[in-house]
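call fold(seq) -> tokens
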Amino acid sequence: MLDSYPAEGVSLSDTKYRPLPDQSSVPGAPRVPGAVAVTMEHTTVTITREQPKDHIVWSVIGLFFANILCLALAAFICSVKSRDRKMVGDLVGAQRHGSTAFSLNVANTVLAAVLLLLVIGLCFHNPMMLGALSGLWLRLI
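ret:
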């Protein structure tokens, strides 16, 4: 069966099978006829991650001015923990404690605002309430 096909002779000195001139200078370049050698350059991209926020200033202000249900105290503790985690290098823990401090600060601020609006509304609705609240305030001091 192999006898039916004639053997074809290929000359190695034929010009169409020589490597291209630009391929000979590149090590590891493919030795394929018509191939083009390409030199690749590598680029390194450095991505810096933003430091997580600890919200400690907001926690201190809430602690001194409006500590509703001790939420500002809990937020201050979480803020300090977040700052400690950041100093150690645990950015995930710092982000978690900072997020908790943010949520507690938001809840404290909203409750303080609602309470303030409620007191202002009651004082304008009933002027006698203003006297009762000032008397209560003086007893607490």
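Residues 18 and 67 are 85 Å apart (CA to CA).
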